[in-house]
Write the structure tokens for this entry.
Amino acid sequence: MDNLLIVTTGGTIDKIYFDDKSDYQIGEPQIGMILRELGVNFRFAIIPILRKDSLHISDDDRELIRATIAAQPTRHVLVTHGTDTMVQTARVLAGLAGKTIVLTGALSPARFRGSDAEFNIGCAIGAVQCLPEGVYIAMNGRIWDPARVRKNVEANRFEEID
């Protein structure tokens, strides 16, 4: 992999806690800081498109994500996304020729100790380098086909569907 395009859309992975408001809000994308701290050995560019909880991502937002990725020459694409509607966005991205796209996120904010963010990002980076052209989801230590996965909200994990 010569270059990695990272498209950020918000979601839990980028949430930060504001004490004075006693509230979580989506902050700056965390992935760049994470990758720099880890000292990765590849070039990456980050395009922050949205700062939304995935429950607030609209069909128009999904089309914007698709158009942005389609307009870039980069073959390898990682999308950070909220987990609640990650599957819907992945399905909209299907069919983009010449691209390997992996969506990932976190079930707790990247700034939290014990967050799954770094693990999921690492899994997604490995996947985007090895998988053939197509769209995938990297969560819970697995690579999922967006057509055959759902988020089990009660169990707070992804699982295969038939």
